[in-house]
Automatic annotation (TrEMBL):
Segments of this protein annotated with the region Disordered: 1-78, 117-157
Assigned GO CC terms: nucleus
DNA bind region: 154-213
InterPro entries per record: HD, HD-ZIP_Homeobox_LZ_Class_II, Homeobox_CS, Homeodomain-like_sf, Leu_zip_homeo
Protein name from the UniProt record: Homeobox-leucine zipper protein HOX7-like
Biased composition (Polar residues): 119-128
Lineage: Eukaryota, Viridiplantae, Streptophyta, Embryophyta, Tracheophyta
Annotated source species: Panicum miliaceum (Proso millet)
Superkingdom to which the source organism belongs: Eukaryota
Biased composition (Acidic residues): 58-70
GO function term, MF aspect, one: DNA-binding transcription factor activity, RNA polymerase II-specific
PROSITE patterns assigned: HOMEOBOX_1, HOMEOBOX_2
Keyword terms: DNA-binding, Homeobox, Nucleus, Transcription, Transcription regulation
Primary subcellular site in the record, as a coarse category: nucleus
Length: 320
DNA sequence: TAGCGAATTAACGTTACATCA
DNA sequence: TCTGATGTAACGTTAATTCGC
Protein backbone atom coordinates (compact mmCIF):
# COMPACT_ATOMS: atom_id res chain seq x y z
CA UNK A 1 0.00 0.00 0.00
CA UNK A 2 1.26 3.39 -0.88
CA UNK A 3 0.11 6.46 0.91
CA UNK A 4 0.91 9.89 -0.31
CA UNK A 5 1.11 12.70 2.12
CA UNK A 6 0.49 16.10 0.68
CA UNK A 7 0.76 19.35 2.56
CA UNK A 8 -0.56 21.56 -0.12
CA UNK A 9 1.15 23.73 -2.61
CA UNK A 10 4.60 24.93 -1.99
CA UNK A 11 5.18 28.09 -3.91
CA UNK A 12 8.81 28.48 -3.06
CA UNK A 13 10.39 25.33 -1.78
CA UNK A 14 13.45 26.04 0.24
CA UNK A 15 16.57 24.65 -1.22
CA UNK A 16 18.47 22.18 0.82
CA UNK A 17 16.08 22.16 3.70
CA UNK A 18 14.33 19.17 5.03
CA UNK A 19 11.75 21.12 6.88
CA UNK A 20 8.21 21.24 5.65
CA UNK A 21 7.40 23.96 3.24
CA UNK A 22 5.47 26.79 4.74
CA UNK A 23 2.25 27.77 3.15
CA UNK A 24 0.83 31.06 4.27
CA UNK A 25 -2.87 31.19 4.80
CA UNK A 26 -5.47 33.87 4.84
CA UNK A 27 -3.85 35.32 1.78
CA UNK A 28 -5.12 38.66 0.84
CA UNK A 29 -5.62 39.98 4.32
CA UNK A 30 -2.82 42.38 3.84
CA UNK A 31 -4.63 43.73 0.91
CA UNK A 32 -6.93 45.42 3.32
CA UNK A 33 -4.76 45.88 6.32
CA UNK A 34 -1.83 47.39 4.59
CA UNK A 35 -0.45 49.96 6.94
CA UNK A 36 -0.52 53.23 5.13
CA UNK A 37 2.19 55.62 6.02
CA UNK A 38 1.60 59.10 4.84
CA UNK A 39 4.59 61.08 5.87
CA UNK A 40 6.30 64.04 4.41
CA UNK A 41 9.41 63.70 6.45
CA UNK A 42 12.57 63.12 4.52
CA UNK A 43 12.79 60.60 1.77
CA UNK A 44 12.86 56.90 1.61
CA UNK A 45 16.12 57.04 -0.23
CA UNK A 46 18.62 55.16 1.81
CA UNK A 47 21.62 53.15 0.96
CA UNK A 48 22.46 50.00 2.78
CA UNK A 49 25.99 51.01 3.38
CA UNK A 50 25.55 50.52 7.04
CA UNK A 51 24.99 46.87 6.36
CA UNK A 52 28.59 46.64 5.42
CA UNK A 53 30.04 48.50 8.30
CA UNK A 54 31.52 46.85 11.29
CA UNK A 55 31.30 47.81 14.92
CA UNK A 56 34.77 49.12 14.56
CA UNK A 57 33.79 51.71 12.06
CA UNK A 58 32.42 54.50 14.15
CA UNK A 59 33.14 57.16 11.63
CA UNK A 60 30.87 55.35 9.23
CA UNK A 61 28.26 55.20 11.91
CA UNK A 62 28.38 58.90 12.22
CA UNK A 63 28.17 59.18 8.50
CA UNK A 64 25.38 56.71 8.61
CA UNK A 65 23.35 58.95 10.78
CA UNK A 66 23.64 61.74 8.31
CA UNK A 67 22.68 59.50 5.46
CA UNK A 68 19.71 58.23 7.36
CA UNK A 69 18.37 61.70 7.46
CA UNK A 70 17.68 61.45 11.17
CA UNK A 71 21.17 62.11 12.32
CA UNK A 72 20.13 63.47 15.66
CA UNK A 73 17.10 62.77 17.78
CA UNK A 74 17.35 65.61 20.13
CA UNK A 75 14.65 66.76 22.39
CA UNK A 76 14.35 70.03 20.59
CA UNK A 77 13.34 68.35 17.39
CA UNK A 78 11.05 65.47 18.20
CA UNK A 79 9.64 63.62 15.27
CA UNK A 80 5.93 64.05 15.06
CA UNK A 81 4.44 61.53 12.74
CA UNK A 82 0.94 60.36 12.17
CA UNK A 83 1.69 56.71 11.87
CA UNK A 84 -1.05 54.53 13.22
CA UNK A 85 -0.19 52.58 16.31
CA UNK A 86 -1.67 49.13 15.77
CA UNK A 87 -1.70 48.35 19.46
CA UNK A 88 -3.49 51.42 20.60
CA UNK A 89 -6.96 52.76 20.05
CA UNK A 90 -7.52 54.98 17.10
CA UNK A 91 -7.40 57.98 19.32
CA UNK A 92 -3.76 57.30 19.86
CA UNK A 93 -3.14 58.59 16.40
CA UNK A 94 -4.81 61.87 16.91
CA UNK A 95 -2.42 63.53 19.22
CA UNK A 96 -4.34 62.68 22.33
CA UNK A 97 -2.93 61.57 25.64
CA UNK A 98 -2.77 58.06 24.27
CA UNK A 99 -0.61 59.30 21.50
CA UNK A 100 1.71 60.73 24.05
CA UNK A 101 1.84 57.40 25.87
CA UNK A 102 2.49 55.65 22.62
CA UNK A 103 5.33 57.92 21.78
CA UNK A 104 6.78 57.98 25.24
CA UNK A 105 7.19 54.28 25.08
CA UNK A 106 9.77 54.67 22.33
CA UNK A 107 11.85 57.03 24.30
CA UNK A 108 13.30 54.23 26.31
CA UNK A 109 16.73 55.02 25.06
CA UNK A 110 17.01 58.12 27.09
CA UNK A 111 19.42 59.82 29.31
CA UNK A 112 18.52 61.48 32.53
CA UNK A 113 19.25 65.13 32.73
CA UNK A 114 21.81 64.41 35.36
CA UNK A 115 23.67 62.39 32.79
CA UNK A 116 22.88 58.83 33.87
CA UNK A 117 22.87 56.85 30.71
CA UNK A 118 20.73 53.79 30.40
CA UNK A 119 22.63 52.12 27.60
CA UNK A 120 19.57 51.42 25.59
CA UNK A 121 18.11 49.07 28.16
CA UNK A 122 14.41 48.73 28.54
CA UNK A 123 13.03 50.71 31.36
CA UNK A 124 9.85 52.35 32.34
CA UNK A 125 10.35 55.92 31.34
CA UNK A 126 7.09 56.96 32.82
CA UNK A 127 8.50 56.57 36.28
CA UNK A 128 11.46 58.74 35.59
CA UNK A 129 11.20 62.17 37.09
CA UNK A 130 12.71 64.12 34.27
CA UNK A 131 14.18 63.02 31.05
CA UNK A 132 14.90 64.13 27.59
CA UNK A 133 14.96 61.94 24.52
CA UNK A 134 18.38 61.68 23.07
CA UNK A 135 20.11 59.65 20.44
CA UNK A 136 19.08 56.08 20.20
CA UNK A 137 21.25 53.46 21.88
CA UNK A 138 22.91 52.47 18.65
CA UNK A 139 23.99 56.05 18.28
CA UNK A 140 25.35 56.00 21.78
CA UNK A 141 27.11 52.85 20.83
CA UNK A 142 28.59 54.57 17.85
CA UNK A 143 29.75 57.35 20.09
CA UNK A 144 31.21 54.83 22.51
CA UNK A 145 32.90 53.07 19.66
CA UNK A 146 34.36 56.35 18.69
CA UNK A 147 35.73 56.64 22.17
CA UNK A 148 37.00 53.11 22.26
CA UNK A 149 38.18 52.89 18.70
CA UNK A 150 41.69 53.67 19.68
CA UNK A 151 41.71 51.28 22.60
CA UNK A 152 40.86 48.21 20.60
CA UNK A 153 37.35 47.76 22.01
CA UNK A 154 35.78 45.62 19.35
CA UNK A 155 33.03 43.97 21.38
CA UNK A 156 29.67 44.76 19.88
CA UNK A 157 26.98 45.97 22.15
CA UNK A 158 23.56 44.51 21.84
CA UNK A 159 20.67 46.84 21.86
CA UNK A 160 17.65 45.67 23.74
CA UNK A 161 14.51 47.06 22.23
CA UNK A 162 12.03 48.43 24.68
CA UNK A 163 8.73 46.69 25.18
CA UNK A 164 7.00 49.51 23.44
CA UNK A 165 9.31 49.38 20.48
CA UNK A 166 8.90 45.63 20.21
CA UNK A 167 5.16 45.90 20.56
CA UNK A 168 4.95 48.49 17.86
CA UNK A 169 7.14 46.47 15.56
CA UNK A 170 5.00 43.42 16.29
CA UNK A 171 1.90 45.34 15.41
CA UNK A 172 3.47 46.57 12.25
CA UNK A 173 4.63 43.07 11.42
CA UNK A 174 1.10 41.79 11.77
CA UNK A 175 0.04 44.35 9.22
CA UNK A 176 2.80 43.55 6.78
CA UNK A 177 5.66 41.15 7.23
CA UNK A 178 7.83 42.92 4.73
CA UNK A 179 8.74 46.55 4.46
CA UNK A 180 8.93 49.00 1.68
CA UNK A 181 11.82 51.43 1.99
CA UNK A 182 9.39 54.14 2.96
CA UNK A 183 7.76 52.00 5.62
CA UNK A 184 11.17 51.13 6.92
CA UNK A 185 12.35 54.66 7.26
CA UNK A 186 9.04 55.79 8.71
CA UNK A 187 9.11 53.05 11.29
CA UNK A 188 12.67 53.88 12.13
CA UNK A 189 11.81 57.50 12.70
CA UNK A 190 8.75 56.59 14.65
CA UNK A 191 10.65 54.22 16.91
CA UNK A 192 13.80 56.24 17.11
CA UNK A 193 15.81 53.49 15.51
CA UNK A 194 18.00 53.26 12.50
CA UNK A 195 16.34 51.92 9.34
CA UNK A 196 18.87 49.15 9.35
CA UNK A 197 17.70 48.09 12.80
CA UNK A 198 14.11 47.99 11.66
CA UNK A 199 15.13 45.95 8.65
CA UNK A 200 17.07 43.52 10.78
CA UNK A 201 14.22 43.21 13.21
CA UNK A 202 11.83 42.28 10.43
CA UNK A 203 14.29 39.77 9.03
CA UNK A 204 14.70 38.13 12.39
CA UNK A 205 10.99 38.25 13.00
CA UNK A 206 10.29 36.49 9.74
CA UNK A 207 12.85 33.87 10.62
CA UNK A 208 11.26 33.32 14.03
CA UNK A 209 7.84 33.03 12.48
CA UNK A 210 9.09 30.51 10.01
CA UNK A 211 10.77 28.55 12.74
CA UNK A 212 7.61 28.47 14.79
CA UNK A 213 5.61 27.40 11.77
CA UNK A 214 8.15 24.68 11.11
CA UNK A 215 7.72 23.40 14.63
CA UNK A 216 3.95 23.42 14.18
CA UNK A 217 4.33 21.58 10.87
CA UNK A 218 6.62 19.07 12.48
CA UNK A 219 4.08 18.25 15.15
CA UNK A 220 1.40 18.08 12.53
CA UNK A 221 3.42 15.66 10.42
CA UNK A 222 4.07 13.50 13.45
CA UNK A 223 0.36 13.22 14.04
CA UNK A 224 -0.19 12.50 10.37
CA UNK A 225 2.39 9.77 10.52
CA UNK A 226 0.85 8.19 13.58
CA UNK A 227 -2.62 8.28 12.10
CA UNK A 228 -1.43 6.88 8.80
CA UNK A 229 0.33 4.09 10.62
CA UNK A 230 -2.88 3.28 12.43
CA UNK A 231 -4.78 3.34 9.17
CA UNK A 232 -2.16 1.12 7.63
CA UNK A 233 -2.48 -1.39 10.44
CA UNK A 234 -6.25 -1.33 10.15
CA UNK A 235 -6.07 -2.00 6.44
CA UNK A 236 -3.65 -4.84 6.97
CA UNK A 237 -6.05 -6.39 9.43
CA UNK A 238 -8.86 -5.97 6.94
CA UNK A 239 -6.83 -7.64 4.23
CA UNK A 240 -6.07 -10.52 6.54
CA UNK A 241 -9.72 -10.74 7.42
CA UNK A 242 -10.68 -10.86 3.77
CA UNK A 243 -8.17 -13.55 3.03
CA UNK A 244 -9.41 -15.59 5.92
CA UNK A 245 -12.98 -15.29 4.77
CA UNK A 246 -12.08 -16.21 1.20
CA UNK A 247 -10.79 -19.51 2.37
CA UNK A 248 -13.82 -20.11 4.56
CA UNK A 249 -16.31 -22.87 3.48
CA UNK A 250 -19.06 -21.65 1.17
CA UNK A 251 -22.08 -22.40 3.49
CA UNK A 252 -20.80 -19.57 5.65
CA UNK A 253 -22.69 -17.14 3.42
CA UNK A 254 -25.98 -18.60 4.42
CA UNK A 255 -25.92 -16.97 7.81
CA UNK A 256 -25.99 -13.48 6.44
CA UNK A 257 -28.94 -11.22 5.67
CA UNK A 258 -29.81 -10.70 2.08
CA UNK A 259 -29.51 -6.98 2.39
CA UNK A 260 -25.86 -7.42 2.75
CA UNK A 261 -25.59 -8.39 -0.89
CA UNK A 262 -26.99 -5.14 -2.16
CA UNK A 263 -25.08 -2.81 0.04
CA UNK A 264 -22.33 -1.05 -1.76
CA UNK A 265 -19.22 -0.19 0.11
CA UNK A 266 -16.49 2.22 -0.71
CA UNK A 267 -13.02 0.94 -0.98
CA UNK A 268 -10.95 2.88 1.50
CA UNK A 269 -7.97 2.73 -0.77
CA UNK A 270 -9.30 3.77 -4.15
CA UNK A 271 -12.65 5.24 -3.24
CA UNK A 272 -14.49 3.07 -5.76
CA UNK A 273 -17.78 1.49 -4.95
CA UNK A 274 -17.39 -2.15 -4.16
CA UNK A 275 -20.11 -4.74 -4.24
CA UNK A 276 -18.72 -7.43 -2.04
CA UNK A 277 -18.68 -10.93 -3.35
CA UNK A 278 -18.56 -12.03 0.19
CA UNK A 279 -21.39 -10.39 2.10
CA UNK A 280 -19.86 -11.47 5.34
CA UNK A 281 -17.62 -8.50 5.01
CA UNK A 282 -20.53 -6.18 4.79
CA UNK A 283 -22.24 -7.76 7.72
CA UNK A 284 -19.23 -7.67 9.94
CA UNK A 285 -18.50 -4.07 9.24
CA UNK A 286 -20.56 -0.95 8.69
CA UNK A 287 -22.22 -0.56 5.32
CA UNK A 288 -20.34 2.66 4.85
CA UNK A 289 -16.76 2.64 5.81
CA UNK A 290 -16.07 4.83 8.84
CA UNK A 291 -14.50 8.10 8.03
CA UNK A 292 -10.85 7.57 7.77
CA UNK A 293 -8.90 9.51 10.32
CA UNK A 294 -6.61 10.35 7.47
CA UNK A 295 -9.30 12.32 5.74
CA UNK A 296 -9.69 14.55 8.74
CA UNK A 297 -6.01 15.24 9.04
CA UNK A 298 -5.31 17.75 6.45
CA UNK A 299 -6.67 20.80 8.08
CA UNK A 300 -3.16 21.98 8.49
CA UNK A 301 -2.44 24.14 11.50
CA UNK A 302 -0.73 27.46 11.25
CA UNK A 303 1.28 29.34 13.71
CA UNK A 304 -0.06 32.73 14.61
CA UNK A 305 -1.75 35.15 12.29
CA UNK A 306 1.27 35.82 10.22
CA UNK A 307 0.48 35.49 6.59
CA UNK A 308 2.21 36.53 3.49
CA UNK A 309 0.31 37.12 0.38
CA UNK A 310 2.41 35.85 -2.51
CA UNK A 311 1.90 39.08 -4.34
CA UNK A 312 3.10 41.04 -1.36
CA UNK A 313 6.12 38.95 -0.61
CA UNK A 314 8.28 41.17 -2.75
CA UNK A 315 6.83 44.54 -2.61
CA UNK A 316 8.12 46.89 -5.25
CA UNK A 317 10.54 49.38 -3.92
CA UNK A 318 9.14 52.81 -3.51
CA UNK A 319 12.35 54.27 -4.79
CA UNK A 320 12.77 52.05 -7.79
C1' DT B 1 22.41 47.13 -6.49
C1' DA B 2 18.90 46.29 -3.06
C1' DG B 3 16.58 43.06 -0.55
C1' DC B 4 15.92 38.76 1.31
C1' DG B 5 16.71 34.08 3.55
C1' DA B 6 19.74 31.22 6.01
C1' DA B 7 23.34 30.47 9.06
C1' DT B 8 25.88 32.18 12.58
C1' DT B 9 27.68 35.10 16.33
C1' DA B 10 27.38 37.28 20.51
C1' DA B 11 25.12 40.01 24.18
C1' DC B 12 21.96 39.62 27.59
C1' DG B 13 18.49 37.64 30.78
C1' DT B 14 16.79 33.75 33.37
C1' DT B 15 17.08 29.66 36.01
C1' DA B 16 18.91 25.97 38.58
C1' DC B 17 22.33 24.62 41.51
C1' DA B 18 26.24 24.72 44.69
C1' DT B 19 28.65 27.01 48.27
C1' DC B 20 29.19 29.62 52.35
C1' DA B 21 28.37 32.44 56.40
C1' DT C 1 19.59 22.13 60.21
C1' DC C 2 17.58 26.00 58.04
C1' DT C 3 17.97 30.38 55.57
C1' DG C 4 19.45 34.10 52.78
C1' DA C 5 23.14 35.92 49.91
C1' DT C 6 26.39 35.07 46.29
C1' DG C 7 28.68 33.01 42.35
C1' DT C 8 28.30 30.48 38.18
C1' DA C 9 27.30 27.31 34.51
C1' DA C 10 23.76 26.18 31.31
C1' DC C 11 20.38 27.60 28.47
C1' DG C 12 17.05 30.53 25.80
C1' DT C 13 16.15 34.73 23.40
C1' DT C 14 17.25 38.00 20.12
C1' DA C 15 19.91 41.92 17.95
C1' DA C 16 23.39 41.96 14.76
C1' DT C 17 26.57 40.11 11.17
C1' DT C 18 27.89 37.57 7.16
C1' DC C 19 27.19 35.29 2.92
C1' DG C 20 24.95 33.74 -1.10
C1' DC C 21 21.22 34.24 -4.25
Amino acid sequence: MELELSLGDSPAPAKGTSTPVLTPTCAGKEDHDELVLELGVGTAKRTEQDSQKTPTQPEEDAQDQEEDGEACFHSESPVELSLGCPLLPASAETGSANSEECRRGFEANTVLVDGDTVQGRSLSTSSLPMEVPVRQAADQEAAEDEENSGVGGGARKKLRLSKEQSAFLEGSFKEHSTLTPKQKSDLAKRLNLRPRQVEVWFQNRRARTKLKQTEVDCEYLKRCCETLAQENRRLHREVAELRALRTAPYPFYGHLPAAGFSTARVCPSCGDKVTPRNPAITASSPAVAPPSPVSTLFARPHFGAFTVHPVLRRQPSATS
